UniProtKB/TrEMBL annotation:
It holds the Pfam family Ribosomal_L10. Keywords: Ribonucleoprotein, Ribosomal protein. GO terms for biological process: translation. This is Large ribosomal subunit protein uL10m. One of its GO terms (molecular function) is structural constituent of ribosome. Belongs to the universal ribosomal protein uL10 family. It comes from the Eukaryota. Component of the mitochondrial ribosome large subunit (39S) which comprises a 16S rRNA and about 50 distinct proteins. It comes from Strongylocentrotus purpuratus (Purple sea urchin). InterPro entries: Ribosomal_uL10, Ribosomal_uL10-like_sf, Ribosomal_uL10_bac_type.
Amino acid sequence: MATFMWKSVSACTWTPSSMCVRTMKSINTRKKKPMHIMRAKLMAVAERKERPDPRSLAEQCSMRKSIKQPATEKPHLVREYYASLCRQVFSASKLIAVYHTEGLSAAEQNDIKRRLRKNNISLKVYGNSIVQEAITGTELESLRPLFVGSCIIALSEELTVKELLKATRRIPKIHLLGGRVGDQLMSPKGMDDYSKLPPLETLQGQFAGLLTSSLSRPYSLLQANQQRLTMNLDQLVKQGGDSVDGTAEDR
């Protein structure tokens, strides 16, 4: 009886050795599935094979049509338009000053324009490539080394160097690199020295004074010599007349 009960209990209990585990491998999508053998044979038979060219390699290269000629660069119409506009503005200006900027905002740039507009000075912003294309082959080509980095250009039809430096001296984000005053290229120090000169009318008056003084001195010297000569002649005549009267009385 005990043996029967043990067999019946052991038959109903779960044991690890009799456990069935169902497993499934993941599908490999990275590795390409090989082609069927019959299809591979059919593709190999149907593959097109070109006949070998009997010509030499030099003849093949000389007659090949796939060699393309270097394409000529087409002119950029927008760039040419802005370059011509920049050239016209430069040619009409007697004062050209180039400033280097350190991240000017729109409000700061408008403030500088407002300050310069009071002295009839305009502020322009052009790309360096456009400016270099505009000044190439002109008398302004000496300004080419100044256009490096972020630059703004101050232009005026008058030689208002003093007013320009006074308006931009207190702006810390712009630095004068140089410019052209009249027909002469100047450094920042040269433009500063030029601004300290008196006005042109004063210089013209001083030069005229020097010329008149240089002319008046020889005139005064010549006039003094003439006056001295006439005085000596008068004195000589008087002395000669007295001597003649004395001799007549004696006789």
